[in-house]
């Protein structure tokens, strides 16, 4: 005859089982929230770019067909984070009529001895101007790879939508600041380490003007 061997572990009381169940539920909720937070970042950026929310500028398919007899001062700001680059705006500001297409220039110099790839993020101040600041062409739409010791001119073609002049949140604001910050690209492959002769040859190449 078989005999039931008593368990070496005493049965859990109802309160202990309830506490463990609550702990498992809380842990599952925590990891679910972390996953949702990571997934929300690209969705949030896409939403901002589409709507102009949080000061994000928008990409336009065509220039404005209306130009108002009202002007804005457009100021430019350039920043770099964790890149061996010098990044500057070629003009401090521009006077633009609302609806007028304007061209601004930025310049990037790679101060290192190897190619480096970066991606610019951008926003405008005041934030309410985001939906109306339209870019027809911009270096911020794609990764930018700059060669060793190379300088590159980076133009931005933009206009301010005429609706800016009638929006309650923007019509009394005479200035808009367009700000760019370059960060290392998260999608570009790591650069291949060059041999010493190639590095010396690159370093001796004159800077592009």
Structural write-up:
The strands form 2 sheets. A 5-stranded mixed sheet has the order 1-7-9-5-3. A 5-stranded mixed sheet has the order 4-2-10-6-8, with no helix packed on it. It is α+β, with helices and mostly antiparallel strands and 209 residues long. The N and C termini lie far apart (96 Å). It has helices spanning 14-51, 196-203; strands spanning 58-59, 71-80, 85-89, 93-97, 102-110, 116-125, 133-137, 144-146, 151-160, 175-184. Helix content is 22%, strand content 33%.
Strand and helix layout:
Elements (H helix, E strand, L loop, with lengths): L13 H38 L6 E2 L11 E10 L4 E5 L3 E5 L4 E9 L5 E10 L7 E5 L6 E3 L4 E10 L14 E10 L11 H8 L6
Parallel strand pairs: 1-7, 2-10
Antiparallel strand pairs: 2-4, 3-5, 5-9, 6-8, 6-10, 7-9
What's the gist of this structure?
With 209 residues, the protein is α+β, with helices and mostly antiparallel strands.
Task: Describe the largest sheet.
Answer: 5 strands, mixed
Strand composition percent: 25-35%
Overall, the morphology is flat
Uncertain stretches of 5 or more adjacent residues: 33-56, 191-209
User: Radius of gyration from the CA trace?
Assistant: 27 Å
Distance between the termini: 96 Å
What labels would you give this structure?
five-stranded mixed sheet; alpha+beta; 33% strand; 209 residues; flat
């Amino acid at each position: 005859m078989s005999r039931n061997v008593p368990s070496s572990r005493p049965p859990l009381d109802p309160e202990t089982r309830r506490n463990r169940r609550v702990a498992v539920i809380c842990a599952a909720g925590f990891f679910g929230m972390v996953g949702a937070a990571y997934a929300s970042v690209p969705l949030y950026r896409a939403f901002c770019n589409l709507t102009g929310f949080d000061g994000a500028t928008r990409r336009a398919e065509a220039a404005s067909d209306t130009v108002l007899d009202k002007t804005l001062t457009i100021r430019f700001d350039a920043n770099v984070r964790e890149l061996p680059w010098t990044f500057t705006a070629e003009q401090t500001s521009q006077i633009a009529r609302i609806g007028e297409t304007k061209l601004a220039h930025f310049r990037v110099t790679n101060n290192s001895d190897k190619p480096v790839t970066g991606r610019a993020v951008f926003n405008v101040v005041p934030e309410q101007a985001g939906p109306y600041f339209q870019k027809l062409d911009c270096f911020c739409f794609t990764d930018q790879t700059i060669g060793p010791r190379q300088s590159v001119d980076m133009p931005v073609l933009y206009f301010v939508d005429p609706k800016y002049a009638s929006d309650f949140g923007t019509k009394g604001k005479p200035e808009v600041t367009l700000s760019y910050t370059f960060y290392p690209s998260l999608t570009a492959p790591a650069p291949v380490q060059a041999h010493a002769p190639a590095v010396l040859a690159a370093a001796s190449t004159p800077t592009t003007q």
